Fold this sequence. Notes:
transferase activity; seven-stranded mixed β-sheet; BirA Bifunctional Protein, domain 2; 2 domains; 42% helix; single chain; 339 residues; alpha+beta; three-stranded antiparallel β-sheet
Amino acid sequence: MRDKLQQIKENAMREIQESGDLSKLNEVRVAILGKKGELTAVLKGMKDVAPEDRPKVGQWVNETRAAIEEKLDETKKKLEAAALDAQLKSEVIDVTLPAKRNKIGHSHPNAEVLDQVKRFFTGMGYEVVEGPEVEYDYYNFEALNIPANHPAKDEQDTFYINDKIVLRTQTSPVQVRVMESKKPPIRMIAPGRVFRADEVDATHSPSFHQIEGMVIDKGITFADLKGTLAEFAKEIFGEDTKVKFRPHHFPFTEPSAEVDVSCFKCGGKGCRFCKGEGWIEILGCGMVHPKVLRMSGIDPEEYSGFAFGIGLERITLLKYEIDDMRLLYENDDRFLKQF
């Protein structure tokens, strides 16, 4: 038995020495020490050894196993070190090469202007409200004093889903929904995407963004509207900006006005940017029509209010002096990096 164990040990040492890599070394370990290995077979044959010889034979088997395991562990460490060394040599990193720069994104011009508008109005106590983009004809038109067959319906070139549902042409329906669900006082802005069947060109798109604002309370006058929009214009275009109100007509406000700001390029003197007029149109506004208040469940004898509508893209184009609205939607890196 001792000779057999010695033979197993010598063969194991030789095979370990010749293994050459970790995979072959593991094969040697399994062949000798595995469940069906040579040394394991010897242990299984212990039942055939005379009882008085078993302690001595067991000692020889343990000594053989210990010697083989020690050699296996020693060889494994050498092979792992050699493999790591080879890997380091084959995967050399040239630390002098320039690093790859990460492309860091930033806010879209529209998003930057919208954030500025939100900060201004929330600072004045307004809340930001959102509503559905697919809207009922009632909220988009009728509740805003635009009944069936009203010319304004044609002017807005509406996308109809069916005779009762449309893609909203403005965010004013959100104002109606707020008036129906909340009692005055109300101070709110409603930013969001709107849709009109316009041809795509430098100043038009079938999908764009508006910011509608509204205040409803006791004793609200046109003076409150003028003061609010004058401060808004200074916030967006600069402290020296002046505003001018021109009479206009909107079905949902009475009286109504278009608002111009003094040209921030020439200070109102007249230049190419303002087409020599010294003024630039930016939004429409007016006092909320009594009929609109009444349809929304608010008594116009007790409450009054004003509303305004801002085209987000128009403000963005003016603020950053962009001459083509399509640039905002093309996702061109070269354009967006300028802001």
